[in-house]
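It is worth pausing here to work through a concrete case rather than discussing structure prediction in the abstract. The textbook approach is simple: state the sequence, then state the predicted structure, then interpret. We follow exactly that order.
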Amino acid sequence: MTDELDLISRLKDKATKDDAFRELLKLYKERLYWHIRKIVISHDDADDVLQNTFIKIFRNIDKFKGDSKLFSWMYRIATNESITLINKNAKRLQISNEEVQDKAINNLAADVYFEGNEIQIKLQKAISTLPEKQKLVFNMKYFDDLKYKEIAEILETSEGALKTSYHIAVKKIEAYLTSD
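Step two, the predicted structure:
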C-alpha cells in the first residue's frame, strides 16, 4: 500500500508525473486490457478503450481522493469506458447493446488476436446472454480472480449483491453450456 501511495503522490506531482505514469502503464496496462477485452470482445475496440482509459486516468489523477485503491478506481474508469463504447456502437449501428455484443462474439473466430477454441467462443456467447451487471461481476470474479470486496469498490455496490449476482450468473452460464 505504501508503494501505491508513493506512486499516487508521484502521479500528482508535475515534476514526476510522466515517469510515474509510465510506471503505472507498465503495472496495469495488461490487466486493464484483458478486463476491457472481456467486456467489448474485439481487440481493436479494447485497444481504443484502453487508450481512452489511460488518457482519463492521466487527466483526472488529481481528482483521485484515495477512497478506494488506485487499481479499483482505474478498473471503474475502464468499465465505464467499455460500456460507453458499447452504447456508442449500438447507437451508431441503431441496434441494441446485446446485438453489438453478439456481433463482436460472432467476429471472434476471425480475430487474429483471439487464440481460443469453440468452447471458449461458446463460453463468451453464454456470458453475453447475461445482464450487464452479472456479466461484469462474472468476468471480474471468474477471469480476473478479484475478491468480492474489490469488485464492490469497482462497481460501487455491496458484497452481498455481488455474491448473489455471481451465483445467478454461474447458474445461467451452466444452463447455457449444457443446453443443445
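Step three, interpretation. The mean pLDDT is 89. The radius of gyration is 17 Å.
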